[in-house]
């Protein structure tokens, strides 16, 4: 099946704390810059799998912006939708690690080139043959960015395309009022929903509601496929088959050498969405997505762990051989 994916949002450089438990309010060493931004990592992973993906963003006319664009181009992302600005610098993020899953960020997104992303940056010609839009919650950081997202969403939905949505909630972004308001709008159009397990409670109606109860309520609102990402534990799927029978599936994850969690959820989502669009079964798409997430955490740097289809298959065959021996 032929398809082309579009995604929109932050493209930035990231600097990683060198030491575990390093603090922002004390002098310490950071390594980087690494190309980053949740939708950029998503786009890079889609392209690495060999599928077409258009990415819309803004960077500064600076060395960081150049580095980010070069990296995406090298991996096969269609970058004509990225605008270089003279008036603002490329966005940045600094990250410190407290434990395996706990991180603190300092973002410079709204006041960077990313913050200038708007309705006019969405070139309709680049969307002509796009039939899927992936939305990241972290990319809804301003009214301008939300307008840009709505434009692409309307164009793709009006020609029968599909939408996937990863809430990608960050505690550093909870004070951005526009973001929360736009979630309800996007959920109305979502076909594939991809929360992580610690985001499930955000979408629950009642305290004490089980994950399955929350997801069933969302399916009743019209979402077709829901995947709850649970890292090394794997993923849970909730949805309906072709005969409209409800099904829930758990697919186990994979353990790898844990180095850096940033980007793992984006790689998982990119792999699941593109393989589902390519006609893979839910089970197979989840299996490959779990591998994609596992390989992502084994490399330092948010985009350094993206994988090709051959690399995913090699990992799977190696692990099935190990389980047989």
Summarize the model shown.
By secondary structure, this protein is of the alpha/beta class. Helix content is 33%, strand content 22%. Strand 8, helix 3 and strand 9 form a beta-alpha-beta unit.
Explained architecture:
There is one protein chain. This protein is an alpha/beta fold and 325 residues long. It has eight helices and 13 strands. It has helices at residues 38-48, 63-74, 143-158, 177-189, 211-220, 264-277, 282-296, 309-324, and strands at 4-8, 12-17, 30-36, 52-60, 82-85, 91-97, 103-108, 132-136, 162-166, 192-193, 225-229, 235-240, 246-251. The strands form two sheets. The chain has a nine-stranded mixed β-sheet, with helices on both faces. A four-stranded mixed β-sheet has the order 3-2-6-7. Strand 4 (52-60), helix 2 and strand 5 form a beta-alpha-beta unit. The longest helix has 16 residues, at 143-158. The two termini are 37 Å apart.
């Amino acid at each position: 099946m032929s398809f082309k994916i579009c995604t929109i949002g932050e493209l930035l450089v990231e600097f990683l704390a060198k030491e575990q438990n390093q603090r922002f309010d004390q002098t310490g060493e950071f390594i980087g810059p690494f190309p980053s931004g949740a939708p950029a990592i998503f786009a890079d992973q889609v392209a690495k799998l060999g599928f077409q993906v258009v990415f819309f963003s803004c960077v500064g006319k600076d060395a960081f912006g150049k580095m980010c664009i070069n990296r995406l181009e090298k991996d096969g992302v269609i970058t004509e939708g990225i605008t270089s600005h003279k008036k603002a610098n490329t966005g940045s993020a600094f990250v410190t690690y407290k434990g395996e899953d706990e991180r603190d960020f300092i973002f410079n997104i709204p006041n960077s080139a990313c913050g200038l992303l708007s309705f006019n940056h969405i070139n309709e010609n680049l969307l002509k043959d796009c039939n899927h839009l992936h939305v990241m919650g972290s990319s809804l950081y301003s009214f301008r960015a939300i307008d840009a997202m709505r434009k692409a969403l309307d164009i793709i939905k009006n020609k029968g395309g599909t939408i996937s949505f990863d809430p990608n909630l960050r505690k550093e972004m909870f004070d951005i009022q526009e973001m929360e308001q736009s979630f309800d709008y996007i959920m109305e159009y979502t076909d594939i929903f991809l929360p992580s397990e610690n985001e499930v409670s955000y979408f629950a109606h009642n305290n004490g509601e089980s994950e399955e109860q929350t997801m069933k309520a969302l399916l009743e609102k019209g979402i077709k496929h829901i995947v709850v990402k649970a890292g090394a534990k794997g993923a849970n799927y909730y949805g309906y088959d072709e005969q409209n029978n409800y099904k829930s599936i758990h697919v186990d994850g994979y353990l790898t050498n844990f180095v850096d969690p940033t980007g793992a959820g984006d790689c998982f989502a990119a792999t699941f969405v593109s393989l589902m669009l390519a006609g893979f079964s839910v089970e197979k798409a989840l299996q490959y997505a779990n591998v994609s997430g596992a390989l992502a955490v084994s490399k330092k740097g948010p985009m350094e762990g993206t994988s090709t289809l051959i690399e995913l298959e090699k990992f799977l065959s190696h692990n099935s051989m190990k389980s047989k021996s």
